[in-house]
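in:
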């Protein structure tokens, strides 16, 4: 099993300096093989990929291999992969393309004043939510944010389809939520949208495009674009032990599915995303994808075992005070994510983390770290009571997290609670 961990984490035998990292949903450390691939590309493939001399040809070959590895990881074709700077750019590129395609396809048929319409859900990442809110504020588009079910914490297919209008150009639903780990019913939504599209085309309306942000799912469970039935899928390298760049899968790029560039330049990436390619980071992304393809089943099984053990230990230690915020009846979730609260008026998640001596984790999404003690909007959307949501902690385990790490973390949480409540153990020394 890969024991990769952030520097200073998981290998220091000295207890006062021991840290246990459990924030792998925020970011992952680059795998040693990824670091090696980046280093080798920096040293031996520094040439411009558009050049014909050896260092340039080497760079072009590395990019081609990486594209193949990414396609293999998601079950697509190499020609359908476009490299981007990361998930935010990929998501914005999809939204931009869907809007441009609708405007072009409907320029002659649509009634004056009719705006393109987007359907998404209430727990999407900010890189989907914010650009859509911007378009709505600018009155350039209309957006429906479908609430997630308070029973399942999912965006249910019936609710998503009910939000569709004649002017709908894109349905974008994340594959797995970054705070709860809940897996959305994307295959069911895609089947329903495909059936609806057959009717729309017959009626002279453009087909609805379907996108999923797979940032949290990749590297933790098998992801196959054919089974998902999506037109676009967002790939984020630093979520699966790769570098901080990303890619976008586009089904039948340019033929079946349109992509409209946001940048214009030297023609790289077939003009869909121009700019001299970042060869070293692309090499690292390709290596990270290769490792996922080879080892995903083992990664998933290991993380599930450690996550389940974590929840068992939390319940054994804190009993009825524990509320597992990411468990919903009949709902699948990522194998590595545990969102929980320890009930108590003094046990807000941020305060608990501040008292922890070993645990490195978060209260929710890293991009919402400035919210203080305000309850997570995602948890509130899922029906978690405000007083419980305010105490939430998100622990996400990784490939190298062990049961021994879990034991240390639970004891760390126990002393943190004692410190905050002034009970036994509050004066214990590290």
């Amino acid at each position: 099993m890969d024991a990769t961990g952030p520097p200073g984490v998981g290998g220091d035998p000295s207890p006062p300096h021991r840290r246990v990292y459990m924030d792998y949903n925020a970011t992952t450390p680059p795998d040693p093989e990824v670091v090696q691939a980046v280093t080798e590309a920096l040293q031996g493939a520094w040439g411009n990929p558009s050049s014909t001399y050896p260092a340039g040809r080497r760079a072009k070959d590395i990019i081609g291999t990486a594209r193949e590895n990414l396609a293999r990881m998601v079950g697509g074709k190499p020609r359908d992969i476009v490299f981007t700077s990361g998930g935010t750019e990929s998501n914005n590129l999809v939204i931009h393309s869907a809007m441009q395609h609708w405007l072009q396809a409907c320029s002659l048929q649509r009634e004056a004043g009719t705006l393109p319409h987007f359907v998404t859900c209430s727990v999407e990442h900010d890189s989907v939510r914010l650009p859509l809110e911007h378009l709505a504020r600018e009155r350039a588009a209309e957006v429906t944010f479908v609430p997630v079910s308070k029973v399942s914490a999912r965006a249910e297919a019936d609710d998503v389809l009910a939000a569709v209008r004649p002017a709908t150009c894109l349905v974008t639903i994340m594959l797995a939520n970054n705070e709860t780990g809940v897996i959305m019913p994307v295959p069911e939504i895609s089947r329903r949208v495909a059936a609806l599209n057959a009717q729309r085309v017959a009626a002279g309306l453009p087909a609805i495009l379907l996108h999923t942000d797979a940032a949290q799912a990749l590297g933790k469970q098998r992801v196959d674009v054919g089974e998902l039935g999506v037109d676009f899928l967002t790939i984020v390298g630093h979520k699966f032990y790769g570098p901080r760049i990303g890619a976008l899968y586009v089904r039948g790029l340019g033929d079946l599915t349109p992509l409209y560039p946001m940048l214009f330049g030297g023609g790289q990436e077939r003009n869909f995303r121009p700019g001299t390619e970042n060869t070293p980071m692309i090499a690292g992304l390709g290596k990270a994808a290769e490792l996922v393809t080879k080892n995903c089943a083992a990664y998933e099984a290991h993380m599930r075992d450690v996550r389940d053990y974590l929840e068992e230990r939390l319940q054994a230690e804190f009993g009825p005070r524990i509320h597992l915020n990411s468990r919903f009846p009949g709902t699948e979730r990522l194998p590595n994510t545990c969102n929980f609260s320890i009930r108590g008026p003094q046990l807000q998640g941020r305060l608990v983390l501040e008292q922890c001596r070993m645990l490195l984790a978060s209260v929710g999404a890293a991009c919402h770290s400035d919210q203080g003690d305000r309850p997570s909007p995602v948890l509130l959307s899922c029906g978690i009571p405000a007083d419980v949501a305010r105490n939430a902690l998100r622990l996400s385990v990784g490939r190298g997290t062990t049961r021994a790490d879990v034991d240390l973390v639970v004891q760390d949480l126990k002393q943190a609670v004692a410190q905050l409540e002034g009970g036994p153990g509050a004066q214990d020394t590290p």
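note: The CA atoms of residues 166 and 418 lie 57 Å apart.
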